[in-house]
Specification:
single chain; about 160 residues; alpha+beta; five-stranded mixed beta sheet; 3 helices; about 20% helix; elongated
């Protein structure tokens, strides 16, 4: 959504099957599994609101990947983990845990200014990283190490 975190999350919610199954009456209406993305949601009676073709598309895996990579913003490329969230402005913060071999990266994203993206500061294990070290245009990243350690990462938007 080209940096439009509010719009991206709104569209993600529309597609997310769990949003169609929040109550028991919605479950009875939707009929589909809340963890499988439907290819169809019928609009005509008597099946209006029912999910169809839920196990044929492989879309659930792609949707999960899109959420992690393009909303949460975690994308691994080789030994680099890019952290470029595109989140709703209402999110004050979120956290994620990322495993790389025997290492664990505990990632906290702080959003005190209620932005949808960008970055002002990246700290890894208490050391602020220099933005000049990030490759041009790709944004903040950390170098991953399979060192069996727990690493604390904090990105401030």
């Amino acid at each position: 959504m080209l940096g439009e975190g509010d719009k991206a999350f709104e569209l993600f919610h529309l597609l997310n099957p769990i949003m169609h199954t929040k109550t028991s009456s919605e479950v009875r209406k939707y009929v589909g599994e809340p963890y499988a993305v439907a290819a169809d949601v019928y609009t005509e009676e008597p099946h209006r609101g029912h999910a169809g073709w839920t196990w044929y598309t492989g879309a659930a895996g792609w949707m999960y990947q899109a959420g992690v990579e393009w909303i949460i913003g975690l994308r691994r490329r080789g030994d680099r983990l890019f952290i470029r969230p595109c989140i709703p402005s209402e999110w004050p913060e979120f956290s994620a845990s990322y495993r790389y071999g025997g290492a664990e990266y505990r990632i906290a994203v702080k959003n005190p200014s209620h932005k949808t993206g960008g970055h002002t500061r990246l700290v890894v294990d208490g050391q602020e990283l220099d933005p000049a070290e990030w490759s041009a245009g790709e944004g903040p990243f950390i170098r991953l190490a399979d060192d069996g350690q727990v690493h604390e990462v904090e990105l401030t938007l």
